[in-house]
Amino acid sequence: MTDxxxxxxxxxxxxxxxxxxxxxxxxxxxxxPGEGEVLLKTLYLSVDPYMRNRMDDTKSYSAKVEIxxxxxxxxxxxxxESNNPRFQPGDTVASNAGWQKYVVSDGKELxxxxxxxxxxxxxxxxxxxxxxxxxxxxxxxxxxxxxxxVVVSAASGAVGSVAGQLAKLKGCxxxxxxxxxxxxxxxxxxxxxxxxxxxxxxxxxxxxxxxTPNGVDVYxxxxxxxxxxAVLRQMNPFGRIPVCGLISEYNxxxxxxxxxxxxxxxxxxxxQGFIVSEFPQSWPEALDQLSKxxxxxxxxxxxxxxxxxxxxxxxxxxxLKGENFGKQLVKVS
Amino acid sequence: MTDxxxxxxxxxxxxxxxxxxxxxxxxxxxxxPGEGEVLLKTLYLSVDPYMRNRMDDTKSYSAKVEIxxxxxxxxxxxxxESNNPRFQPGDTVASNAGWQKYVVSDGKELxxxxxxxxxxxxxxxxxxxxxxxxxxxxxxxxxxxxxxxVVVSAASGAVGSVAGQLAKLKGCxxxxxxxxxxxxxxxxxxxxxxxxxxxxxxxxxxxxxxxTPNGVDVYxxxxxxxxxxAVLRQMNPFGRIPVCGLISEYNxxxxxxxxxxxxxxxxxxxxQGFIVSEFPQSWPEALDQLSKxxxxxxxxxxxxxxxxxxxxxxxxxxxLKGENFGKQLVKVS
Lengths: 333, 333
Known about the structure:
2 copies of one chain form a homodimer. The first copy, chain A, contains 10 helices and 15 strands. The first copy, chain A, is α/β, with parallel strands linked by helices. Chain A has 2 domains: about 5-125 and about 300-330, Medium-chain alcohol dehydrogenases, catalytic domain (Quinone Oxidoreductase, Chain A, domain 1); about 130-275, NAD(P)-binding Rossmann-like Domain (Rossmann fold, 3-Layer(aba) Sandwich), CATH 3.40.50.720. In chain A, the strands form 3 sheets. In chain A, strands 3, 4, 5, 6, 7, 14 and 15 form a 7-stranded mixed β-sheet that branches. A 6-stranded parallel β-sheet of chain A has the order 10-9-8-11-12-13, sandwiched between helices. Chain A is globular, with a radius of gyration of 20 Å. Chains A and B meet through α8 and β13 of A and α8 and β13 of B.
């Protein structure tokens, strides 16, 4: 390989909103695979909300990225050289190469994907980590039952869009929450949610209340803040809140003060944070089923694809601000 | 019976702190037991934080008390007349007669207690509903494991004192939180907690942090507010918070804004509200074991006993303000 490697490393720990200057582009020689190893070229990089946590120097569910380290991230990659009998040059694999063009892997964590079954990029979204996240949150954490009343925030996003559609497939009534009329229209008309409430519109709580006349049994939480406070007022006894994300807090300099937490007691709620990587036993079944449903057209999705690894910071920041529509990806090669 | 009945009924729904004028003393004729019924005379009335919720006109875990209705409450009663073959005059029973001197019962919900085994009043505290509440919170909700790090708020109270002692019996390290030096000394010296932090003293969080060098696996929550925010900062991954009470909110005119709820996600906590009456399957084993441990001196307790039903409002309000020490009871007859 004569091509150079390109990496985006963490330059600063952000205070409040992430800046593009918090990342630094670095060029190095292309790594060489040793015995049993493969060289991967990144085709697509997934940018996801959880990455914001990794940039902070606080104890959290996973190791932070150190200053000067390559940013972590899920990728779709092509095997370009192989010293591993399990892989051939030209194979496409899901991997965790991070924000860089080339990486060497021992092959252990690579998952071969089938470009014939569904579009490649779906393996980073609906049939990938975000889809499995929705699956684990609904079925493992919330123990969703048929016919329940479900609310999903960030409903047009990579995880929320799958969570709502899975709940519909389970026979539930599903109300989404999203920002702006376009996203709300998409959530109802294309994804098939029963309703979708625009949190940016006036009378958000009144609209949410009208859309949940039988209350809320399961709230799939991606955002936190005033939206969480509003949904808490609608919770039914024995409701469950799988806490998948709290994106409104990730860039806040002052935390939001959650007012309606008394409902935890009065409604005997179960509120539980989770991270999908801690449920490895769920991945094989979930990925298999999600891929099939994508292939059958039962799970729909939309993507925003940004061109060029150098634009990954901009794509990431836009995603944190909700500027993307559906799954945010970066086309690297 | 020529004795008159005396009842305390709800006169007003309180705004903020309960006032004595929110209750009204009413005298009526003594009721007469019909076929299969017994007439009970109240010996002791238990006043408990949950009663504050029943005074409000909001949806909650249990039916509200209507204006003019007798206040609800657990009691120890003596059978004074019986048309029921299961009971003899002179029997002592645990019941739910509420804030009144006499009541007629069909006997179905009466639990006979043994005055020889332990002191009668313990059946309203450590070997009664508060004790079972501690049991359910720790073992059913939190799934407490040996050797875990436990924090209990309202540690000298009826529920908290049992929760901490049960956790000690399970081989855990237990830190209490209580108001004032006297209560903290009692919690450590008499109840045997490892440490107890005074939330009224300066440097509360610093002291809590020092007392929980290995973090907190289970936080038995009775109070909410800034104390909950402080303990959240100490939670370990996969920590559990059984939410038994949020007494700081019950009389608040403005809810407290909970700042550290992000920890639900970062530490993958399970936060769950519960009410002990919804765990009927746990009561027989819990009551049996709790009574034995009281008899063996393994569970210690303290009581504040107020004389006279007419003083129940004052006793109740004092309990809500933390003026009592240990289980608050009212001696009625």
